[in-house]
Write a structure and sequence with these properties.
The protein is an alpha+beta fold. Strands 1-2-4-5-8 form a five-stranded mixed beta sheet. The longest helix is centred in the N-terminal third of the chain and has 25 residues.
Length: 169
């Protein structure tokens, strides 16, 4: 397996540890929320493009851990290739989500992908150099007003039944 150039960078190692810990936390929240089976996080390829896929219920979630508060910026950034991977699964009948775990608050928010992006979601370059390399790439910038606070709903069914009256952040 070919690892990223940043693999042995101390910041990258720390980010992977945080990401693994937070993926376990997120999985413990989204499994009951969606009443889904999602991959066992211990027995899967850690380098999959999409973090959680439930083939039976046709759900997929890409999780991102952030070391900021949910409203620190007006938008939240995620790599465009993650969007393309979920859109490909959506073409096969899956429902697609991004989940954002904001570590300082211990809060989870969802963004449900639609067939087309909202007009105010931007695609532009973004990334970091914190891990010793230029990791800039095309990214989606999703306004935080579209993030769904998972704590406001008992389940995905509750969300689906109430999202027409949803008040964004």
């Amino acid at each position: 397996m070919k690892y990223p150039k940043t693999y042995n960078n101390p910041v990258s190692i720390s980010n992977r540890k945080m990401g693994k810990k937070n993926e376990d936390i997120v999985l413990s929240i989204v499994r009951p929320f969606f009443n889904a089976k999602f991959f066992d996080n211990e027995n899967r390829n850690k380098w999959e493009v999409i973090d959680f896929v439930d083939e039976e219920d046709k759900l997929c979630i890409e999780n991102k851990s952030r070391n900021i508060t949910h409203n620190q910026y007006e938008t939240i950034m995620i790599s465009y290739h993650k969007y393309k991977a979920i859109k490909e699964l959506m073409g096969k009948g899956y429902k697609g989500f991004f989940s954002f775990y904001f570590e300082p608050e211990n809060k989870l928010f969802l963004y449900e992908l639609k067939e087309t992006l909202e007009n105010d979601i931007e695609i532009r370059r973004g990334g970091t150099t914190k891990r010793g390399y230029n990791e800039f790439t095309d990214c989606l910038y999703i306004p935080i007003k579209y993030l769904i606070d998972i704590d406001e709903y008992n389940s995905y069914e509750d969300y689906k039944n109430n999202k027409t009256s949803l008040t964004y952040l």
